[in-house]
Amino acid sequence: MNTPPTASELNLCLCHTCGLACDLSNRAHQCERCDAPLHYRKINSLTRTWAYLLASLVFYIPANLLPVMNTTMLGSGADSTIMSGVLEFWQHGAWDIALIIFIASIAVPGIKFVALTLLLVTVQRNSQWARKERSKLYRFVELIGYWSMLDVIVVALVAALVKFQALGDIEPRVGILFFGLVVIFTMLSAMSFDPRLIWDTPQNKEQMDDAESH
């Protein structure tokens, strides 16, 4: 059975910036379209992904323990964490807002933590288990990353609504900063992971190392 040649066998390299397939037969080091540096694979992909993922886990703790906003209603104010805010919205009948904040603030980061850890561990163990499904999992992580700031937007809209109706006042607290850092570092972690590592074999890795060294 004839198999099609791989990109490395054709001396082709995908630009990580603009996605152009570049011909490396002339030893080009920059993309001819956007001038970005060319690499067969993302440099230090696993190390950088682990570093960003661990940083996001560290910031995730204060993001959930510290208050994210202070709500003043009829002269009385109270700080709210993410979970207490979810419960407060739920108790006041705003179950849709509570559900959005819970999914975006608790469920989505948790899914990304578990998924990226699974991808990293299986790649480092050279596992051949469910490669197609793991590739789909990575694309799913990329997809939900676009909605990571949804709860911050919801809090901003609620604050604007409260101020507009003169019902009270809402001010941000330090917890929202830590959650923003969680979002940023999880996105960087997903961007640093090279999904082609899922399909690598020891022979492919040796070929990539030789190509990069030359």
Summarize the SSE layout with pairings.
Elements: E1 12-14, E2 21-23, H1 45-65, E3 69-73, E4 76-80, H2 82-91, H3 95-124, H4 131-145, H5 150-164, E5 168-172, H6 174-192, H7 202-213
Antiparallel strand pairs: 1-2, 3-4, 3-5
CATH architecture of the largest domain: Up-down Bundle
Strand content: 5-15%
Provide the structure class.
mainly alpha
Task: State the share of residues found in helices, binned by percent.
Answer: 55-70%
What number is the mean pLDDT? 76
Protein name: Paraquat-inducible protein A
Organism: Pseudomonas kulmbachensis
Pfam families: PqiA
Transmembrane segments: 50-69, 97-122, 143-162, 174-193
Summarize this entry quickly.
Helix content is 57%, strand content 10%. This is Paraquat-inducible protein A.
Task: Label this structure with key terms.
214 residues, mainly alpha, Butyryl-CoA Dehydrogenase, subunit A, domain 3, three-stranded antiparallel beta sheet, two-stranded antiparallel ribbon, 5 strands, disordered C terminus, cell membrane, transmembrane helix, PqiA-PqiB_transport, PqiA-like
Question: Mind explaining what this structure looks like?
Answer:
- The chain crosses the membrane at residues 50-69, 97-122, 143-162, 174-193.
- Keywords: Cell inner membrane, Cell membrane, Membrane, Transmembrane, Transmembrane helix.
- It comes from Pseudomonas kulmbachensis.
- Pfam families: PqiA.
- With 214 residues, the chain is mainly α.
- The protein folds into 2 domains: 1-39; 42-213, Butyryl-CoA Dehydrogenase, subunit A, domain 3.
- It has helices at 45-65, 82-91, 95-124, 131-145, 150-164, 174-192, 202-213, and strands spanning 12-14, 21-23, 69-73, 76-80, 168-172.
- The strands form 2 sheets. It has a 3-stranded antiparallel sheet. It has a two-stranded antiparallel ribbon with strand order 1-2.
- The longest helix is centred in the middle third of the chain and has 30 residues, at 95-124.
- The two termini are 31 Å apart.
